[in-house]
């Protein structure tokens, strides 16, 4: 049962994770953690164990790209790998519409509708990963053992790719 003192967005994330059979805990951080480095410092984990959930626009449609906090997306390589003509960062309005969440607090689950999702394979190297769980101002992080498992609940497409990242 989700903790009711959490913000509504974090409760939705918790419900989606639980429905997918993912054992996750929402941890309230002392301050906002809008960067992977800030989140890793607050949690006490390696920055590579932070799962950044980035919303991009590929050929006009929002997609979710989950990268290790130690990596950056190489837009050209990602574009080629997913067969898109154009890939760019999504504006804040698109992020909010696609996920119901604000930039800096986008969780990998809990969105109003499924998003085509691409996952950095290097996240699997970590026994535990941490991802945002809704509102960035509250600094929540979801502790998840399998970064791809929460996506199985819905039948949207997801692919693990490592070629689109650069350390």
From TrEMBL:
It holds the Pfam family tRNA_edit. Gene3D superfamilies: YbaK/aminoacyl-tRNA synthetase-associated domain. Residues 150-160 have a biased composition (Basic residues). Residues 135-167 are annotated as: Disordered. Residues 32-135 form the YbaK/aminoacyl-tRNA synthetase-associated domain. This is Prolyl-tRNA editing enzyme YbaK/EbsC (Cys-tRNA(Pro) deacylase). The lineage of its organism: Bacteria, Bacillati, Actinomycetota, Actinomycetes, Micrococcales.
């Amino acid at each position: 049962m989700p903790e009711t003192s959490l913000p509504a967005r974090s409760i939705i994330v918790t419900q989606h994770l639980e429905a997918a059979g993912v054992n996750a805990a929402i941890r309230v951080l002392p301050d906002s953690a809008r960067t992977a480095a800030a989140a890793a410092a607050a949690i006490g984990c390696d920055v590579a164990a932070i799962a950044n959930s980035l919303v991009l626009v590929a050929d006009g449609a929002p997609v979710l790209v989950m990268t290790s906090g130690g990596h950056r997306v190489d837009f050209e390589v990602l574009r080629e790998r997913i067969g898109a003509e154009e890939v760019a960062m999504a504006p804040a309005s698109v992020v909010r519409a696609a996920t119901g969440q604000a930039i800096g607090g986008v969780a990998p689950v809990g969105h109003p509708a499924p998003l085509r999702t691409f996952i950095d394979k290097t996240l699997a190297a970590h026994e535990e990963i941490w991802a945002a769980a809704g509102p960035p101002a509250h600094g929540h992080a979801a502790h998840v053992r399998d970064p791809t498992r929460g996506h199985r609940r819905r039948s949207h497409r997801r692919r693990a790719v490592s070629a689109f990242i650069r350390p």
